Amino acid sequence: MQHLTKEGKAIPYGRQNITQEDIDAVISALQSDYLTQGPRIAEFEAAFAKYIGCKYAVALSNGTAALHLCALALDVKEGDKVITTPITFAASANCIKYCGGDVVFADIDPSTYLLDINNVRRLLEESPKGTYKGIIPVDFAGKAIDLEAFRKLADEYGLWIIEDACHAPGGYFTDKTGKQQNCGNGNFADLAIFSFHPVKHIACGEGGMITTNNEALYNKLLMLRTHGITKSDSDYTNSIAFAAGTPEAENYPGWYMEMQTLGYNYRLTDFQAALGITQLKKADEGINKRREIAAIYNDAFADKLYIKGQSGVVEGHAYHLYVIEVEDRLGLYNFLRENKIFAQIHYIPCHLMPYYRLQGWNEGDMVIAEEYYKNCISLPMYPTLTVEEQEFVIQIISSYYERK
Q1: How far apart (Å, rounded) are the C-alpha atoms in residues 193 and 71?
Q2: Exposure pattern of 219-231 as b/e (b: 16+ CB <10 Å)?
């Protein structure tokens, strides 16, 4: 974030908000007995599970690791077909490829930018039951997808669901009974994942979390996170005599552990968890600020002819991003940069990345996603964005189109 604004300060599309409380928490962790595998991990997991409203949370090194372990825990294997959206960061799809599975993209809803359940249903209806194993819906930009509807569809076809909620801690949708359903609460998805990258709501530098209400999956994730190793007596398969090195032993010795499956080192550190704990304390404050910023953008652009679409004001939206669709997107992007406003594009459709083109995907396969990509641009959206900075962003966008 090396750029400058009109006063000599950059306006990026997103950034972390680090306070003295955060700094003090990290220093305290660095001065403690544990830099990793210490008590702050469990503390962060418990606090995050409470915030989301789920039973279990597993802290990990990043959101990509979280996606990978979800796929492993659900036994994705070679040839398994899984459906996801093309408008997402590549990791949402890549986790299936890591396990040898096949990614099948379904187009988005043009009004929400989310995976279109009707397109998913069409894919399922056109193939024999059992063709697909799961669905990875994404709460893109912070808008909660209707997982109640996806759960009903998934149950009809015997599918699991991984909710990619990286953009949406604190986001929610309202179910058919009128109850608020928090993103990642585990009531409809088998597993959900979050990211703690600096531009996300909760920043740990890097970091991720898996949430679930399924105890069996939770225990599997704990083992996969740490090399496939367990230190629980009840899980051991080797004998006490072998473990202790003597037939007289009556209990497993304190040093003993077993690697029971092929796992990974996907652990979060204690000083990252310490930062996550303090960041979580101000998560609601940050969400409220994001919603205020979104309302200002919405009012500013609601009646402009050059706006082809925008994130709008939506109940439960967590506003990781505020997206507008515009004419001459490239021109606007460059003009914003000239004025030291560093907007971003989210996302280049996954199916048209060279890697996925090699899997057989082509332009024209996801018409709505591809049209969206031609016009989309994400505006600055973060809690420390000032009113003056936001007004400047709006002014520069307006001036670009008014001069044409």
Answers
A1: 11
A2: bbbbbbbbbbebe
Res. 403 pLDDT band, cuts 50 70 90: confident
Enumerate residues 6+ apart whose C-beta is below 8 A from 145.
114, 115, 137, 138, 139, 163, 173
Does CATH number 3.30.70.1450 belong to domain 284-402?
no
Comparing 1-10, 120-129, 338-347, the range with the smallest average pLDDT is 1-10
Residues 53-72, mean pLDDT to the nearest whole number? 98
The C-alpha atoms of residue 136 and residue 82 are separated, in whole angstroms, by 7
pLDDT digits (tens, 9 = 90+) for 154-173: 999 999 999 999 999 999 99
Q: Which residues contact 69 (CB under 8 A, 6 or more apart)?
A: 58, 60, 210, 221, 224, 225, 264, 266
Q: What angle do CA 217, 230, 212 make, to 5 degrees?
A: 20
Q: Structure tokens of 113?
A: 């930018």
> In angstroms, what CA-CA distances link 89 with 138, 265, 387?
10, 23, 29
Could you tell me if 79 and 100 are in contact, meaning their C-beta atoms sit under 8 angstroms apart?
yes
Question: Alpha-carbon distance 392 to 58, whole Å?
Answer: 41
Under a CB-based contact definition with an 8 Å cutoff, are residues 113 and 347 in contact?
no
- Plot region of 113 (φ>0 → left; ψ -120 to 50 → alpha; else → beta): left
Q: What is the pLDDT of residue 4?
A: 47
**Residue 202 phi, psi (nearest 5):** -120, 120
Tell me the pLDDT tens digit for each residue of 3-45.
445 566 899 999 999 999 999 999 999 999 999 999 999 999 9
Average confidence score pLDDT of the chain: 97
The answer to whether the beta carbons of residues 324 and 309 sit under 8 Å apart is yes
CATH 3.40.640.10 fits 20-229+261-282, yes or no: yes
Which two structure tokens, joined as six digits, stand for 6? 């009109």
H helix runs in 226-352, sequence order: 240-244, 270-281, 283-301, 329-338
Q: Where are the domains of the chain?
A: 20-229+261-282, 230-259, 284-402
290: phi then psi, degrees, rounded to nearest 5: -60, -40
DSSP 115: B
C-alpha–C-alpha distance, residues 329 and 200, integer Å: 24
